[in-house]
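Page header: ASSEMBLY MODEL / two components / 624 residues total.
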Amino acid sequence: MTAGEATAPEPGATAPDAMVSARGIGVRIGAATLLSEVDIDVAAGEWLTVIGPNGAGKSTLLRVLAGLLPATGEVRIDGTPVTSLRRRDRARQIALVAQDPVVPPGMSVFDYAMLGRTPYIPPLAAESAADLAAVRDVLARLDLTGLTDRELSTLSGGERQRVFLARALAQGARLLLLDEPTSALDIGHQQDVLELVDELRATGSDDDPLTVVATMHDLSVAGEYADRILLLAGGRRVALGPPAEVLTEDLLATHYRARVRVVDGDHGPLVVPVRRARRP
Amino acid sequence: MTSRLRLRWVAVGVVAVLVALVAGLAFGPVSLSPVDVVTDLVHHLTGGAVPTGLSARDDAILTQLRLPRVVLGLLVGALLALSGGCYQGVFRNPLADPYLLGVAAGAGLGATAVIVLRPGSTVTAPLLIPLAAFVGALAAVAGTYLLGAAGARFRSTVTLILAGVAIAAFCTAIQTYLLQAHSDTIQEVYSWLLGQLTVSGWHEVLMLLPYAVVTSVVVLSQRRALDVLSVGDEEAASLGLHPQRVRLLLVLAATLGTAAAVAVSGLIGFVGIIVPHAVRLVAGSSYRIILPLSLLFGAAFLALADLLARTVQAPAEIPIGVVTAFFGAPFFVVVLRTTRRVAP
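Prediction written out in full:
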């Protein structure tokens, strides 16, 4: 039994207050198994971070949760199977920020954020005053008001990441899926963006908090911001639990084939890579 | 704030169309004064309430010879420019154009097959031409897409265009073979191939009109969806769109419009690339702006190109495809050089 199994959900049972409830998720493409028998529950307002070595299936899992990739098993979002949601309804519930979103040439920050209102705008109509107000509000919350008319392609990496978040928040979704939200950023901007996500999560209203599922490479950063961590390896769930239970030297050595030392930090365990001992 | 189609630009586009219309009507072997042209148009539009200043002969030249031709030019130009803008959005490729994707060549092959093989009676053949052009155009765009996507890993802006060039060459080869084998029709097909807005009264205009309406309505109704598609299929799907369905609908509409235009006017290249890019440069990069304005400026551009084609070597006419290529090829190089990173 690996660490974190104690907090795992019972197979078949659905936690009553779960925002996300996934059971027996499997994805096969051709002969390759990308995910196999993955069960998770994420409570409303919780932050779950998915870690794992390259090719573990982290991005695949996010796409399944977003309803974008067909999978065996079942994903329920707030009790409703994600595959039974109509596309537009699904887009109002779940927002996904891809790892490296396409930046359309010439598109302004405002227009990009306005794309988040797509599921609210009738196919043949123009955006309403409410849509414009929602976008303005989101841009103000993310401190982007001064950049409204700038072309997205002219912004720095940190500013762009805030605009991608703005687009996702403009969707008014209750579940925010972030695929490597910090991979293109230096450490300062990583912290800025993650603090911002945490703030947004906290300022969601009490009866409708924002739930976050993110994939991340940097383990120390992952441990500092997540409520719980899911460790995937080879498409399987190998550990799920609070950072201190998952970010252990043993688990990381086994699944990342990495030599690390784990030390206690103020907000969670800190993972420090250690060089292999030199051969004599 | 949000990119919107500014009324100012729509007004400029409408003025451009009107200028092209009046210029196209006024100039020719018999020059008419633009004022008389406008008065005569008003005369006909008001059912004779305003007296015309033209003689009966000049009025006949205007309404029976020049007006159908200018209107055809406006329609073909609008369709080619709109289709070009649409393909650019669908394929997320700034170089996409009905001509460069091989769509026009496919349509040309379909139409040529009908002209030289003459299946059916002389009554049904003219109706078959647009249909055969559409079938040929669809086959070509499917071929280009599959060929361009075959090496998905290496698919780039240029791969798709290279695939289009290959498909176009293939279609042209079969077409040449058909022509050689039926040399009695070679003259007829040759002049049509280079693109020509020759008309016999209003027949061609009426033939093209229904296709023009369907294509324009479908493409313009999806202009916002094209903006959403520009961020990638997965993102578009997560925003509630069905990317494959939207793409299929738009490719069908643009291909139908292209095929109909080719069926009546032959191969006129570069309109679909010059016009949307010029619009993009001056008015904005959102498809909500590009598509409606491409329709207007494409119409004006082709009507003016036709005016050049029939006046620079008067009384001889040069093929209009030669005029558009003369302006389009250098423009294409500019677009090629300024194209930034493009999504796969």
